[in-house]
Records
---
Amino acid sequence: MVMNSLTVAALFLCFLAPADTDAWCYHDPSCSEATWPLLGHNYCNGTQQSPIDIVSAHADDDSDLMPFIFVNYSSTSALKTIENSGMTVKVSLHSGITVSGGDLSETYDSLQFHLHWGNGSAVPGSEHTVDGKRYPMELHIVNSESSCNRNTTLAVEDSTGLAALAFFIEEMPDGVSQEPASWRNLTSYLTSITNSGESVSITPGISLDDLLVGVDRRKYYRYLGSLTTPPCNEAVVWTVFKDTIKVSKDLIDLFSTTVRVSNSSSPFMVNVYRNIQAAQEVKTQPAEP
Ligand SMILES: *[C@@H]1O[C@H](CO)[C@@H](O)[C@H](O)[C@H]1NC(C)=O
Ligand SMILES: *[C@@H]1O[C@H](CO)[C@@H](O)[C@H](O)[C@H]1NC(C)=O
Ligand SMILES: *[C@@H]1O[C@H](CO)[C@@H](O)[C@H](O)[C@H]1NC(C)=O
Ligand SMILES: *[C@@H]1O[C@H](CO)[C@@H](O)[C@H](O)[C@H]1NC(C)=O
Ligand SMILES: *[C@@H]1O[C@H](CO)[C@@H](O)[C@H](O)[C@H]1NC(C)=O
Ligand SMILES: *[C@@H]1O[C@H](CO)[C@@H](O)[C@H](O)[C@H]1NC(C)=O
Ligand SMILES: [Zn+2]
């Protein structure tokens, strides 16, 4: 009898808790970021939150920040599906794609990447800023410790359970270089996922390496922080690369003019980033002699 009522109570909590704490948003004052801690996302007002402004002159030299080892980042069948979540555009990855090295404690499985943006190329919307500069867009590759078997619920219980790789995206200089075909290809799917909840398969042909074009992945900033969306767990080893991915202006504009926060009569998804949080200790590679 006691067991039964406990079981019932537990079931009740499990069903109620997600509904109570899931409602969050970027813009509506009733659920925007100032309210995240009040909505039950208790970690969101912690002391080690992301994103941050990186002050390059204050980044401490750390010679342990060695190159990464990327496995299967060159695989042209790595990208599985692309989805409109209502908060972002997310690409899920097949298994067998990993990252290690880079002073990470173990191998991490690359699970997905998603993007943050403002309102077209005119209104930048990266999450991190560098010396106060906000870039047009930011790509996050989310990785979890291999020992967690791709279970992010488990990963966020460990202070280094997740590793996020952050890449800034900006407009390429006029006439200097060619638009990466990989980005043209990826964004061709946006018209198939204009409404929240829509998801389509990605045809093999583009790799993560193709999308990370032009970035010297040996040069990066490192700090310990959090998820930038609720529940904001402080479980993320952040790597913010110094070089940017360069795409055309019209490609940046596509995001804020194609995908919507809900159905076809809802607004376009714009300014999908969290504001800057309290400064953290940031490290980087020592300058070359
Ligand atoms: C964090 O948010 C909770 C819930 O609103 C509140 O009780 C607590 O005082 C806040 N802590 C800080 C440091 O602001
Ligand atoms: C890389 O991915 C392929 C399939 O795309 C898989 O067969 C292979 O095992 C992966 N490599 C590693 C080292 O996991
Ligand atoms: C985004 O930009 C478009 C075009 O410039 C403008 O019409 C719209 O009002 C902007 N949206 C927001 C939320 O600022
Ligand atoms: C993930 O880990 C949590 C916490 O240990 C566990 O409750 C849950 O069942 C796991 N999920 C899956 C899909 O294995
Ligand atoms: C680009 O994307 C389309 C689907 O939108 C796909 O059919 C095509 O094979 C892709 N091309 C390359 C080179 O990956
Ligand atoms: C579309 O979404 C809006 C909220 O953005 C909602 O008010 C409206 O009822 C929805 N319409 C349909 C047909 O689902
Ligand atoms: Zn993100």
---
Amino acid sequence: MRFQLIICAVFGLFLAFRITINDAVIFKFTNAVCESYNQSWFVFHNCRLKAVSRSKVFFNMNGTILHPANDIKIHMRIFKKANGYKPWLFDVTCDACLHLRKRNTPFLSIVYGLFKPYTNINHTCPYVGPQIITDFYLRPELLRLPFPTGDYMLSMQWIFDKKLQFDTNISFTYVEDLIKSK
Ligand SMILES: *[C@@H]1O[C@H](CO)[C@@H](O)[C@H](O)[C@H]1NC(C)=O
Ligand SMILES: *[C@@H]1O[C@H](CO)[C@@H](O)[C@H](O)[C@H]1NC(C)=O
Ligand SMILES: *[C@@H]1O[C@H](CO)[C@@H](O)[C@H](O)[C@H]1NC(C)=O
Ligand SMILES: *[C@@H]1O[C@H](CO)[C@@H](O)[C@H](O)[C@H]1NC(C)=O
């Protein structure tokens, strides 16, 4: 626990340095996999991508939390594709309830900042009932991370009461558009 907190803090500091990125990039979803491991606590009704243009792909999710969740941790990892997905830079477990109260985990702030306008997952704990994400797409201007061009997967494993309940694994591509940026 202590170790995890230190890791969160160290990566947090690292990410707190804002990096200016070129907005001539393609930053879009390529795949979404959602799976519940405990249908009596979390059910997915929908978890789907919809391409609306070459550079814009919507992510829609609809799930239900059947009993209030007061203790929510998220195991977040990024993988980068190179002959299959390999662990890449981030592997942190953060306390989502604490974060929503105190905004103390910069990595989570970045991810959350990207999807907050598209969801009702925007309040403090407990969480119960419908959890909806509507037409969420990636906007490079909100990304405060430097990314090398490549294909990535953000794996988020949701842990309620210290037990894994469901996964949301979202893949995306990040391509610097060299022609436009000249
Ligand atoms: C999500 O990704 C993690 C890490 O690769 C993997 O262990 C897990 O099985 C994946 N979950 C699903 C539902 O594919
Ligand atoms: C599954 O969810 C129920 C609540 O609906 C909970 O009591 C139980 O502990 C959960 N099981 C696991 C293995 O997480
Ligand atoms: C989410 O799914 C449930 C169950 O299928 C449905 O009743 C509800 O209308 C859906 N909500 C949205 C916003 O799509
Ligand atoms: C949370 O999202 C709901 C639905 O989009 C919205 O009505 C509400 O104002 C939002 N609350 C906050 C604190 O942003």
---
Amino acid sequence: MKKARAWRLGMKDFLVMSNSRQRVQLRRPTWIILLVSFVSIFLVGVYIYPAGSSAACFIFSSEGCNAFNNPRLVNLRPLTDDEIASDVVIKEILKTPPVQTRTPKIAFMFLTPGSLPFEKLWEKFFYGHEDRFTVYVHASRERPIHVSRYFIGRDIRSEKVVWGKFSMVEAEKRLLANALIDPGNQHFVLLSDSCVPVHNFDYVYNYLMFTNVSFIDCFIDPGPHGNGRYSEHMLPEVQKQDFRKGSQWFSVKRQHAIVIMADSLYHMKFRLYCRPNMDGRNCYSDEHYLPTFFLLKDPEGIANWSVTHVDWSEGKWHPKSYRAQDITYELLKNITSIDESVHVTSDAKVHRFSF
Ligand SMILES: *[C@@H]1O[C@H](CO)[C@@H](O)[C@H](O)[C@H]1NC(C)=O
Ligand SMILES: *[C@@H]1O[C@H](CO)[C@@H](O)[C@H](O)[C@H]1NC(C)=O
Ligand SMILES: *[C@@H]1O[C@H](CO)[C@@H](O)[C@H](O)[C@H]1NC(C)=O
């Protein structure tokens, strides 16, 4: 599987705790203060400089001025029928909070070719939390042999998945659809067969449940493996300036999972025009469809980074894979304490931002 890291067994238990949860809790007030002060600056600005006056722009940075010229904010283009329909459906879903069940659960959705090498490790992670999670397995190549009771009987009907093709996105949507059937599932995490947990269950549960965003990686890659994959056949709904890239591994809240189910317009655009060997270019929908779709439909609702860690720092086609001798306590401690998101773009630049 693409981007799968070949973790090899050799560790018994490495559900490491770190203190980054505190950081998350501390962050919220800062955000609110920032937001409040931004809002008040804005109001003062509007009060002093009535709308329409070009002087109003000077109260913001030059970037703020440009925001008014951004065609996505001031939509100069008339929307297509499909776009209007898509917008109203999605806005309506986003306005309607999902029904709260007594014990909200997290759906762990495994996208794998066959058997899962780390079932025993996941079993340790899940043990004792039986009422707060569900497991779904989409095995695209061969029937998995399960060794953990949490995985037995959790296979969903699957289809073949071809690396880089749209069948990857279809498998992700199949997992989401099956997991949505259970109204208790409030958050949905997509994982590969080579993912391992690096925090304990409570930490992961609280982190995902009490953050009201989806963790979808989303960034601009101006290079050949980013914007270079864009095709103008996606116009008018998907403009080049809105084309985004991101890790395939996401975690979404229930509302966003439903929004993904409701989408046919962008689904179709990417299925037809973002695929390997499209006009002599290779485009991989699993890296572009959801980041671009959420940028267009709910940019504030996503974190722009993914909760699964992958090391792309070697700058190769595939991320770093770990062999048994690489797996040390220090490595795992390093991974659990990561507090920035690193985006390596194909114009050979590295972009970092803290979260
Ligand atoms: C997320 O939660 C924060 C505070 O906890 C709140 O201010 C914000 O409006 C919420 N956002 C959404 C999209 O619900
Ligand atoms: C994610 O990026 C979009 C723009 O690309 C921005 O509007 C949004 O606020 C970002 N999300 C967070 C949580 O910072
Ligand atoms: C862990 O991080 C430290 C500090 O960045 C670094 O020096 C060390 O090589 C890392 N160790 C491993 C095993 O990645």
